Amino acid sequence: MPEHDGLMRIFWPYDLSRFVSPGTIVGWRNSGLDIFIVSILEDVDTRTIQDALKAGALIRNASHPVTRIFDLCGKSSMQVLGVTNSPNIDVDNLQIHAFTKPKLKLPQVSCARASTIQVIMFERPLPNRMQYISLEPISLALGDKVDPKNEAPDLVLTDDEKDKMKERRKSKELVAKLKLHTVRKHPASSKERALLNIVNQINCSWELDRLLQKNVLQLKKFPRRSLSVSERVVESAMTMRDYVIKATWKLIINYIYPMIKKFFIIVLICHRIFAEAFLVVLEWRMKPDYAALKDISATAQQVDIRLQQFCYWPMQYVMLRKRKYDWESVTTSHPDYIRFYNSLWLVANDVIIGIALGSYIIDNSTWVTENLSETLSMYSIAALQNTISWLMDWPAGLKLNNELAAFLGDLFLWVIDYWSNFFGALKPILPKIIWFVGFSSFAGASLPISLFSDFISVLTFHIYCFYMASARIYNWQYSILQSLFQLFRGKKHNVLRKRIDSCDYDLDQLLLGTILFTLLFFLLPTVLVFYFTFASFRMAIITLKALLDTLLACLNHFPLFALMLRVKDSKRLPGGICFELQDTESPSHNVLRIRKPKDNTIIDNSLNVIPTSYIFLKSVPLKFRGMFQQYFQLGQRIRKHYLSLRVLLCLVTGRFVPPIHRKNLYSLQYTMLPARRAGISEMWTVLTKNESLSKLHSGHEGKLNGRRLNGYGHGKRS
After folding, report:
1. 37 by DSSP, 3-state: which?
2. pTM surpassing 0.90?
3. How many other CB atoms are found less than 10 A from the CB of residue 442?
4. Please, are residues 587 and 92 in contact by the beta-carbon 8 Å criterion?
5. CA nearest neighbour of 134 among 571, 577, 616
6. Are 348 and 331 in contact (CB under 8 A)?
7. In angstroms, rounded to a whole number, what is the distance separating the alpha carbons of residues 257 and 243?
8. Bridge-based pairing state of the strands 116-122 and 612-621
9. Residue 356's pLDDT band (boundaries 50, 70, 90)?
10. Is the dihedral of CA 480, 481, 482, 487 positive or negative?
């Protein structure tokens, strides 16, 4: 779109539409007919405002360097853009006349160079409440954990998944090459490319407006009377009180606070050393391909998560402390703020729930021990024995092979008897285990849940062995039957070429194959019944552990703080922007009496109304699906692993169904932690910085309009 095509685009804050008195419009000029309104300064001459902007008088006494905001907004200075409610004042061709009233929700704007006006109304976000708008949805995961292709690089994939991943990447490369030969998107115009700067201007406009309104009072001359005797006495008393408070505060800051700070840093470093030693043990592997302790045990995984959180919190807090040395309009640290307090809140809730749970377990340890022992004996031993005995005696009317069923049943019952002896030896120390679990609950409810998950894995190990044995027997029998079936067809399976080839068999081979096929085929139902029973038990245990892991994921990663912000103040969780065209009546009834630049005759502008359209720029809050995107990815990952055709084929053929890797299952809970944790020396360096950020910022120097800014906006001649 050309720059001077007659279309004027005005970004107008919604709260500036209620001024009545004459004022001067101040803001940025992004292009000739593209302006952004920052503030309206009332009861001050336009020439005075213009001179004050050039001298930098309106941006003095800023809490932070003003050049920081100007760099974000892509402009070096602000300008006078026009006047409001002043039809008799002459303005330049590129400046505007605006007419506002409290009753009029929309401003009436006129410009000599504009043939069409487009007013984009927006509600300014409040930086002191951490409100802002953004083109992209806010990310609740760390930047090094976000994969633009929706593929987690740290996942452990099976061979089939690796092959599918390669095919998917090849197809993406082909699609990318096809895009080079097709016109899918036209190049962005200059105004579209400036959208990011406009978003930053919207975020910074509220703070700049406050700064301008504060400094414009110095341009107004108010008579000041002298203080009376009583007022001077009160002022001197207040001065003495302030001096005492300041001296006391200085004593605390210079002597007491450094000692407390050093002691706290030493405690943190000692804790960090202990945590690092424990993390090394949890992550140690005998070989690179072997599993670590945290990959085997849910308890070790939970301890690893908590220790990494404790190691990351000091670094995260120091990073968030830097916010006070910068403008509140700078929104780079807002996602870190949400992640930090969300993790703190989750840990606090975890500890509160754990204290309640631990108190209940300790107070009722006898009852808990008896019920747990009875439940485990019933379902892991007695129910399994009854099921196997039922399978040995023609279950559901199925006529199985008595000898094979008796052999398999006696074998499994013999193992269960030995396992029941082991469980009987465990019963005397079960109350101590329950007491330990209850005591561990004071560290959080997630710890007893992970202990219970490991406890289930240990006490159901015999069911896992039964499943593996029956699956292996069934798979062998299925493979042999498949090979013998190819023998009847006069074919064989070529292992090297992985195909079916023709083959001529002798009569003896065919006779022996027929006998073996008949025997194995009639024995197959017996093996299948045992295999199906133990596979069902195994799937039930996997489902129970998946529920426990889901509960752990909610305790460790649930976006509780983000949900609270979404309900309380959705502007703190931006999910993008949208434009809404406002239906307005024809503005011909609004008469703007404007003086022509050449002569002093006043004309009625109602005869030549400039077509004006009003568009509302609104911030779209982050959708609830965006908050739980990690949960959807985890659910999709579990569904692809267990509820897929590959798993069904493994169950049918008797091949082992591997459980989902713990690294893939727990990747959700590590999204708020960095991919590489900071070392001890790095943490010591960050916590023991001698130079204060406030001193660094107080010595900041910049230039504005050819003048050197000393401090935060005080102009000096260069």
Report:
1. strand
2. no
3. 16
4. no
5. 577
6. no
7. 20
8. parallel
9. very high
10. positive
Domain regions of the chain by residue span = 7-142+197-219+575-587+609-621, 332-566
H or E element at residue 78:
none
Tokens of 531: 């295999």
Do 585 and 592 meet the contact criterion of CB atoms below 8 Å apart? Answer: no
Q: 3-state SS string over 111-159?
A: ECCCCEEEEEEECCCCHHHCCCCCCCCCCCCCHHHCCCCCCCCCCCCCH
Q: Could you please report the per-residue DSSP string of 239-258?
A: HHHHHHHHHHHHHIIIIIHH
Beta-carbon neighbour count of residue 383 at 10 Å? 12
How far, in Å, CA of 84 to CA of 23, rounded?
5
CB-based contact 61:323 (threshold 8 Å): no
**Whole-angstrom Cα Rg for the chain:** 37
Question: One-letter amino acid identity for 211?
Answer: L
Buried b (16+ CB within 10 A) or exposed e, 689-713: eeeeeeeebeeeebebeebebeebb
User: What are the strands of the beta sheet with 707-710, ordered from one edge?
Assistant: 701-704, 707-710, 714-716
How many other CB atoms are there within 10 angstroms of residue 25's CB atom? 27
β-bridge mates for residue 499, sequence order: 494
| 450 within 8 A of 555, measured Cβ to Cβ | no
Closest CA to 436 of 530, 368, 335, 351: 368
Q: Is the dihedral of CA 256, 258, 262, 268 positive or negative?
A: positive
CA of 182: how far to CAs of 187, 188, 192, 324, 706, in Å? 13, 17, 22, 49, 48
Residue 82 phi, psi dihedral angles, 5° rounding: 160, -165
Q: Please answer whether residues 617 and 602 qualify as being in contact, where contact means their C-beta atoms are separated by less than 8 angstroms.
A: no
Q: Hey, which residues does 121 pair with through a beta bridge?
A: 12, 616
Look-up of token digits 């009545």: 20
Q: What is the pLDDT of residues 53-106, one digit of tens each?
A: 888 888 888 888 888 888 888 888 888 998 988 877 777 878 888 888 777 778
The 10s digit of each residue's pLDDT in 605-623 is 433 467 888 999 999 999 8
SS3 609: coil
Give the number of residues written for the chain: 718
Type of residue found at 24: T
Structure tokens at 505: 């068999």
Bridge partner residues of 109 (DSSP): 98
- Measured CA to CA, the distance from residue 164 to residue 170 in angstroms comes to 10
Q: Are 446 and 350 in contact (CB under 8 A)?
A: yes
